[in-house]
Amino acid sequence: MKNYLITLLSGIFIFLTIIGSFNWLINPFDYLSSPVIDGLNVHKPKIRERMTKVYKTSQIKPATIILGSSRSLNMPVQHSSFINLPVYNLSLASGSGYEMYRMFQQAHVTRPLKTVIIGLDEKFTNGIYTNFNENRFDVDRDGNANIKRYMQYWYDVYNSILSIDAIKASLSTIKKQSYYSQKNLAVIDMKNRVSKAGGHHQMFGANENKYLGKLSTIQQCHIDAPMPTDKSIIEVTNNLKYLKKMLETAYHDSIEFKIFFSPIHARLQTVNCVKDAGQSIEQFKYAVVTLVESLATTFQKKPFIVMDFSGYNTITTEAVPPIGDKTTLMKWYWEGSHYTSATAELMLDKLAGLDKLGFDDFGVKLEKNTIVAHFQKQRQLQLKYQKNHPRDINEIQQRAQKNLK
Fold it and tell me: Which domain holds residue 335?
């Protein structure tokens, strides 16, 4: 009996050692100190970004970070405009303002930041994603040392080397090494999504249905609608408390802080018109610019750059292939919400004050004394887009009718 138990326990130990060593070597979640072997574990298609990016921040110790939602994931960390290295993209799919703030905290605690680039969407919330575990951070939300981090780290390590999910992720990682290219892993994923969806047009439609949701009424943008004012943005400003915390730290610690509004496609701008007459995004932009400039006055610093890539311009009005076209690939967009790496490169050029390709109407610097004029111009361009793209407008209107409660 004793020999049997020894044999059994030895077998279990050997089995767990083999499994653990295998998963440690493959490192599918990309935060363990494992060797990188070409053809075996270079590419990590199964990464868990809300876990991995916290731990990787401590390893990389970035001087420059990129924050945002899934739209900002395409922002390259290798760009000629980056001076303060290394650069790490801490964007999260469906990332909220609170999650961005915590990622900002983690990076700044690990190493004093020099530059922050943050992308803001029309849906800027303060919620927390279900698997966003704050026990992983070096500090709590108030900046105090997090005593739970050590236990959480080893719990995550256990799940990363001895769980069934880890085995599945490791096998998938090995299987897909020959499939992905290091430089265009995300591009291949998106191309496959376009193909499986039946083309860009179908992807645009699915994305628009998602944003439309269930409608109680169908609205329309008006060129003479009331402009945002300091009074009208009070509620919006209250939702920017975590952006405010980041800005206060940046002004205080002399961090270069660049803000941009994501360039959603003009068709998705039309969806915003249908939902709320385009009022919420104007209120949001006005509130952000007001906050940036008021804090600059408080800290006696030059206001940070706020760049608007959304609206109607050469990039955002790119023609969408017709229904049934499964082969044509758009240059600037995958669908209405997500832009390509070519667009991301152009945005970084603009944020750095470069204009290599000459798209003068793409990227407008927002300031309090010019923002109303900017809104007025965009409203005029919106009418022009409606006139020149009746097929797109009618399609979205029909889709909105189907989504009425």
Answer: 185-402
pLDDT in tens, 109-134: 999 999 999 999 977 777 777 789 99
SS3 content of the chain, % helix, strand, coil (to 5): 50, 10, 40
Distance CA 155, CA 149 (A): 10
Q: 131 lies in a domain? A: no
Q: Is the dihedral of CA 333, 334, 340, 342 positive or negative?
A: negative
Is 190 inside a domain boundary? yes
Enter the pTM of the model.
0.92
Between CA 194 and CA 186 the distance in angstroms is: 12
CB 269 within 8 A of CB 311: yes
| 258 occurs within a structural domain | yes
- CA distances 357 to 31, 104, 309, 342, 348, Å, are 37, 32, 15, 11, 12
Task: Say how far apart CA 34 and CA 31 lie, in whole Å.
Answer: 8
φ/ψ (deg, to 5) at 200: -60, -40
**Two tokens at 405?**
């409660």
Burial class (CB in 10 A: 0-12, 13-18, 19+), 14: exposed
Q: What is the C-alpha separation between 283 and 308, in angstroms, rounded? A: 14
Cα dihedral 179/181/187/193 (nearest 10):
0
- Into how many domains does the chain fold? 1
Tens of pLDDT along 18-40? 999 999 999 999 999 999 998 89
Q: Identify whether 57 is part of a domain.
A: no
DSSP string, 234-280: HHHHHTTHHHHHHHHHHHHHT-EEEEEE----HHHHHHHHHHHTTHH
**Buried b or exposed e, range 173-192, using 16+ CB within 10 angstroms:** beeebeebeeeebebeebee
Six-digit token string for 72: 């900002």
Asked if residue 265 lies in contact with residue 275, where contact means CB atoms within 8 angstroms, the answer is: no
Q: What is d(CA 304, CA 293) in angstroms, rounded to the nearest whole number?
A: 8
Residue in 62, 115, 105 with CA at minimum distance from that of residue 86: 62
